[in-house]
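request received
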Amino acid sequence: MKEEIELIKDGKRLDGRGFDELRPIKIEVGVLKRADGSCYLELGDNKVIAAVYGPREMHPRHAQDAKMAVVKFRYNMAPFSTDDRKRPGPDRRSVEISKVCREAFDPVIMRELYPKAGIEVYVELLQSDAGTRTAGINAASIALADAGIPMKDLVSSIAVGKINGEVVLDLNAVEDNNGEADMPIAMIARTNTITALQMDGRLTKEEFGRGLKLAMGACHQIYELQRAALVTRYNQNYESKKEEK
Amino acid sequence: MGLEIVNDVRTDYVCNLVRNGKREDGRGFREYRDISVECDVIKRAEGSARVKIGDTDVLVGVKVEPGTPFPDTPDKGVIITNAELVPLASPEFESGPPNENSIQLARVVDRGIRGSEAIDLDKLCIEEGEKVWMVFIDIHVLDDNGNLTDAAALGAIASLLNLRIPNERYGLTGENTLPMRDTPVAATMVEIEGNILVDPSFDEGNAAASSVTVISNADGTLSGMQKSGSGGLKEAQIAEMVEIGIEKAGEIRKKYL
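response:
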């Protein structure tokens, strides 16, 4: 058994957050020039950049789908993003996360509009501090919108977990490493539809239910931030166009 | 292309049946196919089990060897789970490096065992920092007729429960049984046309937009979950799946472990 490390003091977490509090989120839209859409996002100490290419011709051709676009999603950690250097290239963890993230977007991307095409989403973790896949999904969602990919809605994502016996929102690395459970989810906020769900660790049924509610609530907050970031970006575009005239 | 059309037709067929409250093999929505678990089927493996769920056939072999611990856990044994979707098991499997499906299968099984802390890793230490027991769980799929996850997870825990540690072979003394503390069991469900079906057959697995695996322990706590597939689910549906998953896992545990 893991020895218990004190992660909660006087009802607060070590970084001063309450149980239901998100880490600070910073979003910048359209940060890359070559990509069709991009987003830089910070979730606490996570720093992630997402780029979207497409819809464009799908390679290899045998991977094309005659009925709809194929979405490729690559989640990748930079070798310097972790305490111990991460060996470059895909490993089993990143392959699984890429799959889960891609599926999180399946219900929203209108793939049927682009038969035979490929839509590529690249997520690079530059600095990691637990919850990387949720940060990646949040950034990818905005990058897809920035690329003008037709979507039914944005996808928002966050993890809940259990530390020192308490269900808390958005674990940081210290909490994740010493916690009892971690459960990342992704959701279409407007319709409360869950598009990704994983759980790792040990939870009772009651804790699971409470955690899911907590995460869903936080996804609504994140959705508002994502939306605001996109609106800000496109207002800027509009303003600068007006000035040119 | 040919296979794709067949799959579309099968999907329509399965969805139509479900709309009328039926399944292709006549089961109820909350009913598993027949399960069989046969332990110690491979003489050379320290633990093994062959699990059949209907026509789905999965062989799990566990090898136990001494090895070097990870630097951050010098006094703990190591579990490594791997799955191979060998081409003999399905016309859709190809040889080559593991793809995302086999990786997900192995990682979900691994997650259940790790999350429940079923194996007391402290007791697998031979010499701190130098030598620990490495437990290699290898999932070999023989016939894919749907719901590989539950078969693989059941095979893994059954193998572990019947495992012998090969102390003598390495000139060591000590307990020959693996210190097990829990029995995580996976129950996989799919959502089709708003209905929840347990133990999806191959066609049901293809027809469903999403599937959820719920892994639970002897005391009814959860030790792992995974949603897979391109559909979305509502909170109430997931809550119901958790409920059903725990119940089904309890039944399987009682009968087969």
